[in-house]
Write a structure and sequence with these properties.
The chain is built from 22 helices and 22 strands. It is an alpha/beta fold and about 600 residues long. It has two domains: about 260 residues, Rossmann fold (3-Layer(aba) Sandwich), CATH 3.40.50.300; about 210 residues, Rossmann fold (3-Layer(aba) Sandwich), CATH 3.40.50. Strands 16-17-18-13-19-20-22-21 form an eight-stranded mixed sheet, with helices on both faces. A six-stranded mixed sheet has the order 6-7-8-3-9-10, with helices on both faces. The longest helix is centred in the middle third of the chain and has 18 residues.
Length: about 600
């Protein structure tokens, strides 16, 4: 049988530097899923971008061929195809889901118009027919309100919601080959499970092949038929997924497995230690936004979070877990004073023990400057949080410049020090952000937040863009800094394995409300809420014999109106958060 895509002896370099991809070969059969696995910077993405010929101007293909055998036409050499012929292929027969949706989506056009453009260009559909198909695809990728998404701009959506829109754009035309570059890193595990199920459904419907670029071995185990492991531009190991995942032969593959995070084996729950030294407290925090409806229609009011109460002890970590759009990031922004809570809510910050707490949203200008030095944030999207016009040295020293800390030489020394903390080196100071991979940019964002030696760090999905080995390094780094400096973390994540590793207490959010709150031991040992159970069931494991139970995920991740009577509610009219066991709170009817 002829492969749908055959990559042979591919080598790519930038300028006169050494090749970043060396003699890479693999093939993809129709309907097959091939997983490209490796650390950030291993050459996975640049290899895939060469298939669509969307490499940077400075990149040069030194050798190799890329053959595409479409079912509707003759075999084509993609490296020698005319640019006009390539444009007809992109988005139609070959689609790509990019890792950074904010960079890939136009900020000037509504999401519905951007996704429907694919069908109008390649399928010659009318505007009404394209809209109907797009709304159906929006619903299939997990949007609860497709009409609202159709009218929204990318900046009005959370990071995970933008990623869902990117996935919908790539899949709406039902391509023969889908290249998915870290398609689920920004998604919560329940949505990830639904999207993976959607990709599988499309494969069975139309025989679509998939190249899955990922560092998540659990996703690989659930999706891949074959696996190619890359490191420093070379193929280290390849073969059928059961063989590679079941008995990895190469030392590098074994190292990736050793670093893969996992929810720990359950144990008897322990109660959180009460120290009565609170550094941050959110009291009855709610936030509503008014969305434009267009024309003469009444504006739509959206509740981002409702009556959230969180207490963070000094030197501890409170994790907030939930799906994209559940209100996690809104709570984090309110905690840092970037958003104002609705009337009745307040945030209290105590920089040192036994001091009178500061009301974050009633600070004087002098207090705010001090607060901004003591409380820093690591953002979810490293591309948009780093200035593309500033070299890394300027990016690292800018916070110290603003707060007038140290001499110029001392600032540079501090920049080098924090880069080493996150696994980078001083030679990178002269580069711009575009010269780094997604994972490296995330490490730069973490380093920048640490330059001021804060006492509180709000981490919004800080490891979502990192491969498993670097993720392990970052988590060890965050733990070491927390223990050595007494740093406190408000940790936003959708990865339960990461949360189980670093958190002292976990709050699970769904549609703006906290539905369960407990220590990790209690939460994973005896989850009570159906949504928490769905989160745990949706966590992929690097074992081909333990696939995700999509039925259990769908049951807990469905509408609150479909949950068992004990937990059921509609809108924000949720039951109270009730303590069913010491330190274990569940939102349920008692």
């Amino acid at each position: 049988m002829t492969p749908l895509l055959d990559v042979s002896d591919l080598s790519i370099c930038f300028g006169a530097a050494d090749p970043v991809v060396r003699n890479v070969s693999f093939s993809v059969m129709p309907g097959e899923t091939l997983a490209l696995v490796g650390e950030s910077g291993s050459g996975k993405t640049i290899t895939c971008r060469s298939v669509l010929r969307i490499l940077p101007d400075t990149a040069h293909i030194l050798s190799g061929s890329i053959q595409f055998a479409s079912e509707t036409g003759p075999q084509m050499d993609l490296l020698h195809l005319s640019e006009r012929a390539m444009r007809s292929l992109r988005g139609d027969q070959i689609s790509m889901i990019f890792q950074e949706p904010m960079r890939s989506l136009s900020p000037l056009h509504r999401l519905g118009d951007q996704v429907s453009e694919v069908l109008m260009l390649h399928r010659d559909m009318s505007a009404s027919a394209a809209k109907k198909a797009v709304l159906e695809t929006f619903e299939r990728v997990g949007f609860p309100d497709p009409e609202r998404v159709w009218k929204s701009y990318p900046f009005e959506m959370s990071g995970g919601m933008r990623q869902r829109a990117m996935i919908a754009m790539a899949m709406v035309a039902k391509p023969e080959l889908l290249i998915a570059d870290e398609p689920t890193t920004a998604l919560d595990v329940t949505t990830q499970a639904q999207v993976l199920g959607l990709i599988k459904d499309l494969q069975s419907e139309i025989g679509m092949a998939v190249i899955l670029v990922t560092h998540d071995l659990g996703v690989v185990a659930n999706m891949a038929d074959s696996v190619v492991v890359m490191n420093k531009g070379r193929v280290m190991e390849s073969g059928p997924a059961p063989a590679v995942l079941g008995a990895p032969a190469h030392g590098y593959t074994q190292k990736l497995f050793a670093a893969a995070p996992a929810i720990p084996k359950v144990a008897a729950p322990t109660r959180a230690e009460k120290r009565n030294d609170t550094i941050l407290e959110l009291r009855n925090v709610s936030k509503t936004y008014t969305m434009r409806a267009g024309g003469w229609r009444k504006p739509q009011v959206v509740t981002a979070c409702h009556e959230v109460n969180l207490t963070l002890e000094r030197g501890k970590t409170v994790a907030v877990v939930g799906e994209s759009g559940s209100g996690k990031t809104t709570c984090a922004r309110i905690a840092l004073g970037a958003e104002t809570p609705d009337q009745g809510g307040e945030v209290l910050f105590r920089p040192r023990a036994n001091e009178t707490p500061i009301r974050v949203h009633a600070m004087s200008p002098a207090e705010r400057i001090g607060f901004q030095r003591q409380a820093q944030m690591v953002f979810q999207d490293p591309y948009s949080s780093l200035s593309p016009r500033m070299r890394i040295q300027q990016t690292m020293t800018e916070p110290m410049d603003i707060h007038d800390l140290g001499t110029k030489a001392e600032r540079c020394d501090k920049a080098v020090e924090v880069l080493e903390w996150v696994g980078l080196d001083a030679s990178m100071l002269t580069r711009y952000p575009h010269a780094f991979s997604g994972g490296q940019r995330q490490r730069l964002s973490i380093a920048r937040a640490l330059t001021l030696d804060p006492v509180l760090l709000v981490c919004d999905e800080p490891t979502s863009a990192l491969d498993v080995s670097v993720q392990e390094q970052i988590l060890c780094l965050l733990e070491n800094i927390r223990d050595r400096m007494g740093l406190s973390y408000l940790f936003i994540s959708h990865d339960l394995a990461v949360v189980a590793r670093i958190a002292d207490e976990v709050a699970v959010m769904r549609q703006g409300v906290v539905v369960e709150q407990a220590t990790p031991d209690a939460l994973f040992y005896a989850p009570r809420h159906p949504y928490t159970c769905a989160l745990i069931a949706a966590q992929p494991e690097p074992d081909v014999n333990r696939p995700i139970d999509l039925n259990l995920v769908a049951k807990g991740a469905g509408s609150p109106a479909s949950w068992p009577e004990e937990f059921r509610f509609e809108g924000i009219a949720a039951p109270a958060l009730t303590e069913l066991a010491p330190g274990h709170k569940v939102r349920c009817h008692v």
